[in-house]
Structure formats: structure tokens, C-alpha cells
Amino acid sequence: MNWAPNVGTLGGSERELVDQTMESRIRLQLDELISSGLAGQRLPSERELASDLGVARMTLRRLLDTFIQDGRVERKVGSGTFIAKPLIASQMQLASFSEEMRSRGMKPSSTVIVNETVSVRSDLATTLVVPIDTFATRITRVRRGDDEPIGVETVFIPQWCNFSPSDEELKGSLYELLAQKYGVYVQSARVEISVAKPSTRICELLEISSEDSCMRIDMVDVDQSGRRIMAATCWYRADRYHVRMSTARMQNRVAS
């Protein structure tokens, strides 16, 4: 039964209270509808929802927008409104992709695209602190969670590590492989995060549109001896992956 009081007989503050109560009820019903559905499921049209919930379409759209902002639903032009797949939130700890997926109850997997030895050019040589024209292992993999492409990573590991993995070994965690087989333990990393348009090839591997932006993460990893062990560029789907960080105010700094 629709709850529709005669707001015309109410004063301003009473009318405002009724509106807030109604919106709370509608928001709760929308929350239940979304929570009980499956990722990718299409919601009823706004006209149908407004009629079923006894609310104006403008009010319904405004409330749906709050769920869109929270990443719980997504609106596709010409198609409707859909329950969104949950975002994978990285805490920006020094953990492998495989560890992050497993911690969220997802099955990690990788598809190896490139596994080769390349000559190190000037920019990469500077990054890894190795001589120009020495060699490095270049690896490009599609990283997946529950068989869905989440990211594409390309890493370079210098030749002094004697790193020569098989494609089969690269299906798991690179950090774990380095530690268990080569005795190299990644202890810290320098990280740069940006938003950019990926190449056509990256879009194909991530199964996204060429119009979509991605999160780009560039990392330089340092091992237990202070050596730069790895340079990586990772592209993550913005609709499936985001970064969560905690910060503290710098001490002994004069406010301006």
C-alpha cells in the first residue's frame, strides 16, 4: 500500500519531515531491491519504479543517483539502470594482485601475453639503475579476478636476478615466485597513480571501450638489499578497481 499523506494540510516544517520520511522509506526499498539482485541485473524502468514505490520520477531519479555515486548501480544510456559489479578496493599495501584477490574471496588468475628478454634503453636503465644495453625480462599479463579481466601489467626485471620464468609459473604471484625460487623479497615500492586513456591493445585485453579511462599505476619495487628489482606499469579498469589510502597531516609544518 502506498503511503501518501495529504501534505497540503501540513505546515512547512511538518511537510519537510514528511518528505524526509518518505525519501528514507524509498531509499530503504531501493537498497533492498539492489541488495537482493545480482551484479549486471537490469532494474525496472524509472517509470515502473516510481509507480510501484508511489513517488515522483524526479525524486526517484535523484535517489537512484545517490546509489550511482556510491558505485552500487550504473546507468547506461539507451539501456537502463543496472546493478553494478562491486569495486575492488586496494588498500595500497605492498601486496600482490593475487593476495588482494584472495583476500576478497575472489579467484586470481593471469594470462601471459609477453614473456621475453629485451635490451634496456636509457629511461628504463635510469629507473632500474643498470647500464644501458644490458638485458631485462619483460612480462605482460592480464590479471583476472573470478575470470574477469581487472588489469594489464607490464614489468621489467633486470638480468642480474637471473629471472627466467615459464609461462606456467607466471600464472601466479610474481612476488611469491621471486621469493620462493630466487630468494628476492620485495620490501618497498615507489608508486605513482594517474588516470589516463589506455592504448587500443590495452582496451582489447581489458574488454573495455576505447572511450573508457583507466587507472594507471607505475611502480618501482626495491628488494631486501635496497636494489631496484622491478619496474612496472599497470592499467586497471576504473569500473572495477579503486585505491583507498589513509593519510596523516605532516608534523612541524606551518599552516598556510
Structural class: alpha+beta
Instruction: Provide the CATH architecture of the largest domain.
Output: 3-Layer(aba) Sandwich
Give the total of beta strands. Answer: 10
How is the largest sheet built, in terms of strand order? Answer: 4-5-6-9-8-7
- Reading the helices and strands in chain order gives HHHEEEHEHEEHEHEEE
- The helix content is 25-40%
Arithmetic mean pLDDT: 80
Compute the separation of the termini in Å: 57 Å
Q: What would you give as the CATH superfamily of the largest domain?
A: Chorismate lyase-like
Strand residue content: 25-35%
Which term fits the overall shape?
elongated
The third-level CATH topology of the largest domain is Chorismate lyase
CATH class of the largest domain: Alpha Beta
Rounded radius of gyration (Å) = 25 Å
Give an overview of the whole structure.
The chain is an alpha+beta fold. It folds into 2 domains: 7-83, Orthogonal Bundle (Arc Repressor Mutant, subunit A), CATH 1.10.10; 88-243, Chorismate lyase-like (Chorismate lyase, 3-Layer(aba) Sandwich). Helices cover 30% and strands 31% of the residues. It contains 7 helices and 10 strands. The protein has helices spanning 12-36, 46-53, 57-69, 97-103, 122-128, 174-182, 200-206, and strands at 73-76, 80-83, 88-90, 108-119, 135-145, 148-158, 186-196, 214-223, 228-237, 241-243. Strands 4-5-6-9-8-7 form a 6-stranded antiparallel sheet. A two-stranded antiparallel sheet has the order 1-2. A two-stranded parallel sheet has the order 3-10. Strand 1 (73-76) and strand 2 form a beta hairpin. Helix 2 packs across helix 3 (57-69). It is elongated and about 70 Å long. Residues 1-7, 89-94, 246-250 and 252-256 have low confidence and may be disordered.
